[in-house]
């Protein structure tokens, strides 16, 4: 099982492999209970949204399941009752957004490449503690946003409900690949909200 077309491994179009071929799931009867099984199976927390109408783009290949009706306790999506016959096309590919999906933005700057670092996680926006916000972390974020290298790391006030802390020991494709902790008070105590001005 995998998610494709999203901004992280915990968001996207639901794809499953059967007999060596990847295919999609039709969105008929697709709901949060089904999406929850997917998120849990992928260790992505719980489902925030069950998406329909190929909202993460149309898949290709076979459509492997239709009328999925999980009860919620299943360990795998293929354990759920479903039909393998379908009357769907790829414009009906099902998708999910899981709670462990992380999405970033810079706010309050002159453009999308400068400002306070904010992360969308578990259904809410949070700030990032600057206690471990160094060149490596800033560099990962700037590159991820397509904004070149970091130039400055200004600090801001925490005004959002949650706080996230990142520690990157080496360059990574995204901050989610680094070590992170959410809403733990100790490392964030007396911190300010991290910001960055990227070269782009």
From TrEMBL:
Disulfide bonds join 70-80, 168-178. SUPFAM superfamilies: SRCR-like. GO terms for molecular function: serine-type endopeptidase activity. It is found in: Cell membrane. One of its GO terms (cellular component) is plasma membrane. Residues 1-99, 104-199 form the SRCR domain. Transmembrane segments: none annotated. The keyword Ribonucleoprotein does not apply. GO terms for biological process: cell adhesion; zymogen activation. InterPro entries: SRCR, SRCR-like_dom_sf. Keywords: Cell adhesion, Cell membrane, Disulfide bond, Glycoprotein, Membrane, Phosphoprotein, Repeat, Signal, Transmembrane, Transmembrane helix. Cell adhesion molecule that mediates cell-cell contacts and regulates T-cell responses via its interaction with ALCAM/CD166. Contributes to signaling cascades triggered by activation of the TCR/CD3 complex. Functions as a costimulatory molecule; promotes T-cell activation and proliferation. Contributes to the formation and maturation of the immunological synapse. Functions as a calcium-dependent pattern receptor that binds and aggregates both Gram-positive and Gram-negative bacteria. This is T-cell differentiation antigen CD6. It comes from Struthio camelus australis. The lineage of its organism: Eukaryota, Metazoa, Chordata, Craniata, Vertebrata.
């Amino acid at each position: 099982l995998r998610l494709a077309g999203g901004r992280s491994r915990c968001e996207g179009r639901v794809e499953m492999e059967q007999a060596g071929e990847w295919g999609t799931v039709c969105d008929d009867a697709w709901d949060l209970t089904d999406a929850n099984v997917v998120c849990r199976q992928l260790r992505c927390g719980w489902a925030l949204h069950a998406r329909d109408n190929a909202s993460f783009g149309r898949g290709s290949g076979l459509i492997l399941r239709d009328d999925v009706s999980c009860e919620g306790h299943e360990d795998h999506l293929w354990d759920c009752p479903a039909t393998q016959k379908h009357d769907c096309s790829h414009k009906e590919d099902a998708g999910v957004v899981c709670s462990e999906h992380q999405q970033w933005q810079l706010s309050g700057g002159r453009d999308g490449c400068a400002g306070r670092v904010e992360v969308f996680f578990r259904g809410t926006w949070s700030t990032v503690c600057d206690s471990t916000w160094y060149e490596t972390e800033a560099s990962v974020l700037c590159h991820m946003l397509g904004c070149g290298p970091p130039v400055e790391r200004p600090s801001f006030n925490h005004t959002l409900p949650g706080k996230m802390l990142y520690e990157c020991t080496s360059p990574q494709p995204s901050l989610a690949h680094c070590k992170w902790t959410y809403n733990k008070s100790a490392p964030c105590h007396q911190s300010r909200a991290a910001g960055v001005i990227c070269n782009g």
